[in-house]
Task: inverse folding
């Protein structure tokens, strides 16, 4: 069954915020094996012009797991069979580094749904801001729903 195209443009605002701590940043940096001192040491971060430790650029992937139940992929009306899904692409547009002490808000929008042969792609944009409204990053994610594209005119069945 094809994904519901009526979802294009639909927004999902997470009901909770995400508070970034030094410990969360350290754990993430350890998990990805990145020894950058600015991820652990306040003085090293300050030497680079930051007020506190900063997070690795891919740190915001944690938001996808933390708020998975608050986004379009958890909405049964979308018509997505998650057993047929593979991750297609992830892209980050940073407005500034994530810092310890940030309290983040998350709004995910269904950016596009389209056919790609027998598959469909669903692209979302997640806007991440501080509770004060300062933009931090935009996250773009594309998933592929295998074999769910609608019947295509002139295609052999």
Result:
């Amino acid at each position: 069954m094809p994904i519901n195209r009526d979802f294009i443009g639909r927004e999902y605002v997470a009901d909770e915020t995400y508070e970034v701590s030094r410990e969360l940043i350290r754990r993430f940096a350890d998990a990805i094996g990145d020894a950058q001192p600015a991820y652990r040491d306040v003085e090293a971060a300050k030497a680079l012009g930051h007020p506190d430790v900063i997070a690795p650029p891919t740190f915001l992937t944690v938001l996808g797991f933390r708020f998975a139940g608050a986004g379009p992929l958890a909405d049964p009306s979308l018509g997505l069979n998650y057993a047929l899904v593979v991750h297609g692409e992830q892209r980050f547009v940073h407005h500034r580094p994530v810092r310890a002490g940030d309290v983040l808000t998350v709004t995910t929008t269904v950016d596009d749904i389209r056919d790609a042969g027998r598959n469909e792609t669903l692209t979302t944009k997640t806007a991440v801001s501080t509770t004060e409204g300062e933009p931090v990053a935009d996250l773009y994610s594309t998933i592929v729903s295998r074999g769910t594209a609608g019947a295509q005119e002139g295609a052999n069945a």
